[in-house]
Amino acid sequence: MKSRYCIYVLLSVLILLGCAASSGGLKILEPPKENQIMIIGNIIVENINQEFAFDDWGQSIQVLIIGKTLDGVVNQYTVNSDSKGYYCLPNVPQGQYVIKAITLIQPGEKPIKLVNDLTSANSSFYRMRHPERPVVDSVTWLPAPTNDKIVNFNIIWFGLRAASISDLSGKSIGEILQAKSSADLTGKRFYDGGFPYTRETPEQYFKIKFPDSKWWTF
């Protein structure tokens, strides 16, 4: 079992993500390939009921995406966001894609892993009790396939209460809003002093960052 886990970790590290990530953010956007699509999105993590909020978590967030190709093959993809929670996954096969889990890395602390069973479109994320365990790719719900060249997951906002961050024994993560669009979040006031939401949409963000990319002109 231990060897299987080591292999899983090694494979996760070796996955070709196409977007290079570092503490300074994404540096390279791989150009589009024929019959491939790109997934983009943004994760916002806010710590509710504490003196400050993680509007910007300040650390790269690991996003685990499940994909089912048009041929019925199920794949896992792990992509790291930049420090603002924006992520992209270019050149994956056409098919059905959805976020299965995200992992929040805290320096010197155990990671926080939030997982979705994906039993329906309204399935909720929950706190995984043992974040060191790998996430299985079994799902009973996937969105309909799309012909779009760019699949925009938009924004997911996680409102984590203090207990859900400090208590590893609990399963619930407290208040959470899922799959909110930029329009839904416009004017929303966060808990860190009531500052309103002002971020770019994922597509706006990456167009500004990579204005000459052929993804915008295909």
* SSE pattern: HEEEEEEEEHHH
* Structural domain count: 1
Distance between the termini: 45 Å
Mean pLDDT over the full residue set: 75
State the major sheet. Answer: 5 strands, antiparallel
Number of strands: 8
Low-confidence stretches: 1-18, 20-24, 51-56, 164-179
Please report which band the strand proportion falls in: under 5%, 5-15%, 15-25%, 25-35%, 35-45% or over 45%: 25-35%
The second-level CATH architecture is Sandwich
The coarse silhouette is: globular
Describe this structure in words.
- The chain is an alpha+beta fold and about 220 residues long.
- It has one domain (about 1-210): Immunoglobulin-like.
- The chain contains 4 helices and 8 strands; from the N terminus they run αββββββββααα.
- The chain has helices at about 1-15, 160-165, 180-185, 200-210; strands spanning about 35-50, 60-70, 75-80, 85-95, 95-105, 110-115, 125, 150-160.
- The strands form 2 sheets. It has a 5-stranded antiparallel sheet with strand order 3-2-5-6-7, with no helix packed on it. The chain has a 3-stranded mixed sheet with strand order 4-1-8.
- A hairpin with a 7-residue loop joins strand 5 and strand 6 (about 110-115).
- The radius of gyration is 17 Å and the shape is globular.
- The termini are far apart.
Write the layout of secondary structure elements.
Elements: H1 2-14, E1 36-48, E2 61-69, E3 74-80, E4 86-93, E5 95-104, E6 112-116, E7 125-127, E8 150-161, H2 162-166, H3 182-185, H4 202-209
Parallel strand pairs: 1-8
Antiparallel strand pairs: 1-4, 2-3, 2-5, 5-6, 6-7
